[in-house]
Every structure is written in structure tokens, then in C-alpha cells.
Amino acid sequence: MQRFINNPDDLVDETVAGFVKAHRDLVRLDAENPRVVIARNAPQPGRVGIVTGGGSGHEPAFIGYAGRNMVDAVAVGELFSSPTAKSFADAIRAVDSGAGVAVLYGNYAGDNMNVKMAARMVAKQGIEVATVVANDDVCSAPAEERAKRRGVAGEIFMWKIGGAKAATGASLAEVQAAAQKAIDACRSVGVGLGPCTLPGVGHPNFQIEPGTMEVGIGHHGEPGTRIEALKTANEVADDMLRIVMDDHALPAGSEVAVLVSGLGATPVNELYVLYDRIETGLAGMGMTVHKALVGNYFTSLEMVGATLTVMALDAELKALLDVETASPAL
Amino acid sequence: MDKIRNQGLGPVVEELAEVIVANKAWLSEIDGKIGDGDHGINMAKGFGRAAERIHGQDMTLDAALAVLSDVLMSEIGGSMGPLYGLMFEDMAAALQGHEDIDAEVFSAMLNGGLEGVRGVGSAQVGDKTLMDTLVPAVAAFDAARGEGFAAALAAMAVAAEQGRDSTIDLVAKIGRASRLGERSRGVLDAGATSCCMILTVLAQGLSRRLV
Q1: Pick from B77, B120, B174: CB nearest A81
Q2: With a CB-CB cutoff of 8 Å, which residues 178-207 of chain B face chain A?
Q3: Neighbouring C-beta atoms of residue B211, cutoff 10 Å
Q4: Are residues A59 and A120 located together in one domain of the fold?
Q5: Closest CA to A187 of A308, A270, A50
Q6: What are B75-88's pLDDT values in tens digits?
Q7: pLDDT digits over B94-115, tens only?
Q8: Are residues A173 and A42 in the same domain?
Q9: How far is A111 from chain B (nearest CA, A)?
Q10: Closest by Cα among B89, B79, B91 to B129
Q11: How many domains are there within chain B?
């Protein structure tokens, strides 16, 4: 794979630099910490701040979701590696206006530790922090161990709902509850067709043999639950939908939001091929799609593959999902 | 001799960095088998950066470890940033103010480091993490203290290697690899491996300076 790289060590800094230049109408860089991206309009007096963060290599996640009525500040980590506790703490400080800050992030060991340490650091300054940990990836642990599941593309819905709730002037506890409700309503699955390479390593750290696919793959190439022969798009879409909906167990007549994201190197047209079949499948189950997002929303470097996220909606989630948002990615 | 002057031990941390940087690719490779393959890169970046800041300065071991801790916690992140960052911070705190390092001071340093890791992580021995190296290594040092500093350092290094190797047959119970269940068996844990490097290089670096 040929790539646009100067020095692998500079990749993250150069990504952030280009990002804040390109989207200067929506975001800015923290004055002191070059690993903290802040929404232009944050902080807003009296409003709960929304912070997230995660490893780089998932662009447009996480930085792309900084913006109006979305995430207020994003802590940026090395490739596939949690941001530092300091960056999380700086992000929290940057967007606290006295109403507290909700940190909405994914369930990974590093992020858990660094957010915990950051919360401790800002507590000394009297900043109140509430956290919601995304765990929407169905194949990463069985249903009875949901707390162990990884957070993946469902995080985007969690941020959207959390940001929209904060925009209504809700309290920290209310924002936390809405974001928790959003991620509890999300189920995701990933299918990998080709591996990705950390530029500093120079070769893929896992393989997907030609003619096969890895069902249940994680956002960093964490091995899936099964490897099987590559099937047609419709068969893969059916499989993904079955995994997600079996875990969901939604009553017929439910309204849902659907997100089909590419993992980095899958052409966008193929994502629409998957979506075509997925919506047909949902209709067959008696589900109505209220909102669909199809594109590269949460990637894994140049992994070939896609993720499917289905969020079950109630009146509150539906209303919050429809709140207008302006961020580089959504 | 059974003690070493604390002042001037900055190069020990530079030696640590040298070994971590030299094993960057290998650490990433074993991490990639059951994790996400970033362990070597981030460890090498952090340790390498710390070594540059320590180089040429007349430092105590605790001052050098504090530099390393600061880089890991404020510039590297990941899961190793806080784990090793707190380990080195608490090791440095235990050494601070001691003109000489003897077996008793070194034991306090090791146990401080162990508590530092426990303060942020929740892993136990057997979970396939760096604790599988650290816990038995610290215990072996303490058990061999009666035989002298050098013998205790040697015992620590042996226990660290055994601890590292014990992770091959373990199923990961914590961290990213834990989602793999049985698929995590049969490979070394990257954290246990880097922890073994740290402890063995520390043991060698101090033993060499004892004579």
C-alpha cells in the first residue's frame, strides 16, 4: 500500500494541523495543548460541556465531531492509542463553563485509565465530570458481559444525543442520562475484508486471507468472532443485520437510526450497496428507518470493511437526533 | 559493595530507553497478535524522548525516572502511559532524598512502583498483563534480600523472565486482548514483555555499578 506520509512520528500532529486549518470556521486548537481540538463556539455559559477523545487513525472520528451542538472538545491520541490524561484534562478545562463536563468515550483500557486520571486532575479545580462509556460492539463480548464490550461507531450517536441534550440547557446528570440512553440503544458490528497498517510498524499486524472475511472485527483490527469465506454484499449485509438485531431484540414497529461506516479503504458506493439491503431487511422485520448515515464516519486507517450500527429510537432520542448540528463530519 | 550512589544514575534510564527502542518492532509485533500493535511504537517514542532529555545531565535515578514518568503520562497516553507513568512516578517518590540506593531502598522503590500500577489498573497475577512479570519479580527481590543486593537483583531478573514467559499459556482477562478469550492463549503479553525488559535492564544496570 502506497501512502502519503512524511515521517510516521509526525502523522498525528500533521493531521491535526491540517484539520484545524481546513475547518477553522468550526474548530480551533487549544492554545496550550496541540492535542486538544475545541469547537469554535465552546464553552457556552451555563451549558454542560461535551468532551470525547480517542486514538488517531479513525478520522473523521474523533476530531470531526467537534462542532456546534455536538462535541465541544476532543482529546487526540497517538495512532490507535488513548490520549494522555493531561489531554483529556485540558479538553475538560477548555469547555467547562461551571455547569460540568460530560466525557463520552469508548470502552478501551487506556481511555478508561486516562479519563479516570483526568477526572481526578480537574476535580482539584472544582470541575464536575460525568462519564458515559460506549460499549456498542456486539461481537466483542457476550450480551451478559455487555460492560466488557468495545465502543465503536455507536459513539457518534452518543455524541449527537449528548451534544443535543446539552444544547437544550440540560443539567450534567440529564446530559449523562441521555448519552447513556443513546449508547444503550445502539448495537454495532464490524466486518473486515483487509487489514490495516500502522505507518510506524510498516506491515499489517493482522492478516485477512484473500477470499475470506472477518466477522466481528474491532476498530483496531482486534480479531473477530469468526473467519469465513467472503460472500456477496447482500449476504454480508444480512449477516451484519442479523448479528445486530438478534442482540437488540426490538419489537416490530420500532423506529431506528442506522449508520453504515466504511473502515477506511472500502469504496463508498459499496457502503450504499450494503445499506440498500440493510434497509430492506429492516423493513422486513417491521422496522422504520428514521435516519440513515452512510459513509466514512469512523474508520480504521486503511482497513477494508464496514461497520453497521442500529440505534433504537424513542420520542426523546428521535427529537434529539433531529437537532441541527454543524461539525466537520456531521 | 552493597549500595550505589543515587547521583549520576541518569544513564541507567538511558539504558532502559536503548533496550525499549531496540525492541520497538518486536514489541509491536507481539502486541499485534492479540492487541492493536501500538505497544512498541508508543513505548519507543516515550522512552526515547525521555532519554534525550536525560542525556548529558547529572541526575539522580529518581530525577531521571520522574522525567520518564512525566513523558509517558503527559505525552504518550495509551494504556501504558498511565500504567508505567504511575509506576515510575511512585518508584521515583520512594527513592527521593536517598543519597545511596541499597537493597532496602530498592525494595521500597519496587514496591512503590507496584502500588503505583495497582492505583490505576485492576489486573491481578494470571490476567496476562505486566503484573505477571512485576508481582513475582518484586516478591523474588524481597525474598532474596538477605543474600545481598546483587543476588536479589539477579533473583528479580530471573523471576521477571519467568513471569513474562508465564503469560504465553495464559488467557487474557483484562485489556484489549481479553475479548479474544482462548484466542489470546499461546502468545506473550506485550506489557509483561516490556516490563521484563525494564526490570532486567534495571537489574543489570545497577549490578554493573555495584562492582
Answers
A1: B77
A2: 178-180, 183
A3: 6
A4: yes
A5: A308
A6: 988 888 999 999 99
A7: 999 999 999 999 999 999 999 9
A8: yes
A9: 7
A10: B79
A11: 1
Helix (H, G, I), strand (E, B) or coil at B46: helix
Tell me the nearest-neighbour CA distance from A222 into chain B, angstroms.
Answer: 6
User: What angle do helix axes A233-248 and A268-284 make, rounded to 10 degrees?
Assistant: 50
CB contact under 8 A, A83 and B31: no
Shortest CA gap B40–chain A (Å): 9
pLDDT digits (tens, 9 = 90+) for A289-320: 999 999 999 999 999 999 999 999 999 999 99
* Listed residue (A267, A263, A253, A268) closest to A309, CA to CA: A263
Does A172 share its domain with A62? yes
User: Domain containing A91: what range?
Assistant: 8-184
A318 occurs within a structural domain: no
Residues in contact with B50: Cβ distance below 8 Å, sequence separation at least 6, in sequence order: B13, B17, B64, B67, B68, B70, B71, B72
* Residues in chain A closer than 8 A to B36 (CB atoms): 80-81, 205, 220-222
* Four-point Cα dihedral A217, B43, A38, A116, nearest 10: 80
Question: Closest residue of A to B120, CA-based?
Answer: A113
C-alpha pair distances (Å), A78 with each of A36, A83, A90, B120, B206: 12, 7, 16, 20, 33
- We report the CATH number of the domain holding residue B107 as 1.25.40.340
Query: The CATH number of the domain where A264 resides is what?
Result: 3.30.1180.20
- Alpha carbons A224 and A239: distance in angstroms, whole number: 14
Detail the DSSP E strand segments found in chain A: 27-29, 36-39, 49-56, 73-79, 101-106, 129-134, 186-194, 212-215, 226-229, 255-262, 288-295, 304-313
Interface test with B, best of A74, A87, A90, A205 (most B CBs within 10 A): A205
For B155, the domain range is: 3-210
**What's the pLDDT score for residue A308?**
98
Cβ–Cβ gap B78/A140 under 8 Å: no
The predicted complex's ipTM stands at 0.75
Nearest beta carbon to residue A86 from set B33, B41, B73: B73
Instruction: Please tell me which of the candidates A86, A148, A201 has its beta carbon nearest to residue B179.
Output: A148
Q: Bin A253: left if φ > 0, else alpha if -120 < ψ < 50, else beta.
A: left
